[in-house]
Design brief:
The chain is built from twelve helices and 19 strands. It is α/β, with parallel strands linked by helices. The relative contact order is 0.17. The structure holds pyridoxal-5'-phosphate.
């Protein structure tokens, strides 16, 4: 893997014709250290967010040894990391996946949100007595970019019944929730804990673990979240009010917040038409969230001798495929002189960028490099960050 000090050094040396994933493992390591030092419980990484070996290595090196996996392929991959503890937190799993997880990979920890799923887990593990079962409850989503409560989660009397039934077969009973990805204010976690508390009291069960899921935010051009410290404060204060013993485990499963700022995408401009730039990756590639959900990632032009006083203009991006939904509206602020052949760094795409890219139209091939400089935005440091273009 080639290493460069900066994106400019990389494009000067390689002049890449395909898009480049530029990983900054040191940024993933910094994020992991922040979480392991500040979160008042166990930190598991949501493997789905980015499975680059360089970022996984950095997370692991910084002390993350628990991983949340969502499929057989993810668990098989994650299980190759020495000494890991895996949590299978997808609330709906095939019978085959449950068997494989329990018998081949020694996974004891499963999420569920229905009695039918509970029965599947019991049947497929042969009535195992060592299961850690987490009931996934639906919680209100507040200030989240990608709410998740419609697809998964149980509420009300159904949730109470499920907790009681799960308690009867679980060695360890947990409650889990997800406030929605890119949640920008901590009150969402406070509201979720209120639901957890009500449910524990009404169901009258002993709960051994609370898993607050992911949802912790990163920074984007169009999204400036509250400080991570504020999220931790709300979680600590809420946990202190839970009707559980001091032995109750507290777990989190961040994906986005651990890796978002640890990877950039370097694209080449194939054509300019006014304020529209045709670039060599897009909505079927690592910019899915920009095309489909309107994320505005930070950008900067990577050109030798760039006049930093040049005025900035708002641009839209078109991806390389022949599909007209391959469009990223932005606005992405770039120097007025941007032209065909220029390279652009699109920052903070580490969460779900690489993970969501497809091979549509024969694209989806990337070069990979490591960069040693800082990302355009970091929620973990303000030291010497390069300038991201902002209005
Ligand atoms: C069960 C579970 N845990 C954790 C995550 C990670 O979420 P985020 O990337 O918002 O931190 C997800 C994302 O979908 C999830 O489904």
């Amino acid at each position: 893997m080639e290493k460069f000090s900066t994106a400019l050094e990389m494009v000067t040396a390689l002049k890449p014709d395909i898009p480049v994933f530029a990983a900054r493992p040191h940024a993933a390591g910094r994020a992991a250290r922040w979480f392991t030092q500040n979160f008042p419980g166990e930190v598991a990484y949501a493997y789905k967010a980015n499975s680059s070996v360089f970022l996984l290595g950095a997370l692991y090196g910084a002390g993350i040894t628990q991983f949340d996996v969502a499929s057989v392929v993810e668990l098989e991959d994650a299980a190759t990391i020495p000494g890991v503890r895996l949590h299978f937190m997808h609330p709906v799993k095939s019978r085959h996946a449950i068997r494989k997880a329990y018998f081949d990979y020694d996974i004891k920890c499963f999420a569920l949100d229905s009695e039918d799923e509970l029965q599947k887990i019991v049947e497929e593990t042969g009535g195992a007595k060592d299961l850690e079962l987490f009931v996934r409850i639906a919680v209100p989503s507040k200030n989240s970019r990608i709410p998740l409560e419609r697809k998964f989660g149980v509420v009300g009397q159904r949730a109470q019944r499920l907790l009681v039934k799960t308690r009867q077969v679980a060695d360890e009973l947990g409650i889990t929730f997800h406030v929605g990805s890119q949640t920008t204010t901590p009150d969402a976690y406070g509201m979720a804990f209120d639901e957890v508390k009500k449910l524990i009291v009404k169901a009258g069960v002993v709960v051994d673990a609370i898993d607050v899921g992911g949802g912790f935010p990163s920074r984007y051009t169009d999204s400036v979240p509250a400080r991570l410290e504020d999220f931790i404060e709300v979680i600590k204060a809420s946990m202190a009010k839970m009707p559980v013993t001091e032995h109750c485990r507290l777990i989190c499963e961040p994906g986005r917040a651990l890796v978002a700022e640890a990877e950039s995408l370097i694209v080449k401009v194939d054509l300019r038409k006014g304020d529209e730039l045709y670039i060599n990756d897009g909505g079927y590639g690592a910019l899915y969230d920009s095309a489909q959900l309107g994320f505005v990632f930070p950008v900067r032009l990577i050109r030798d001798g760039l006049d930093t006083n040049e005025p900035l203009l708002p641009f839209e991006f078109w991806g390389p495929t022949c599909d007209s939904i391959d469009h990223m509206k932005g606005p992405f602020l770039l120097p007025a002189s941007v032209r065909e052949g220029d390279y652009i760094e699109i920052g903070n795409i580490g969460a779900y960028g690489r993970a969501l890219s497809t091979r549509f139209n024969g694209y989806g091939h990337y070069k990979e490099v490591i960069l040693q400089d800082e990302p355009m935005y970091s929620i973990y440091t303000e030291d010497d960050l390069p300038i991201a273009n902002e209005a």
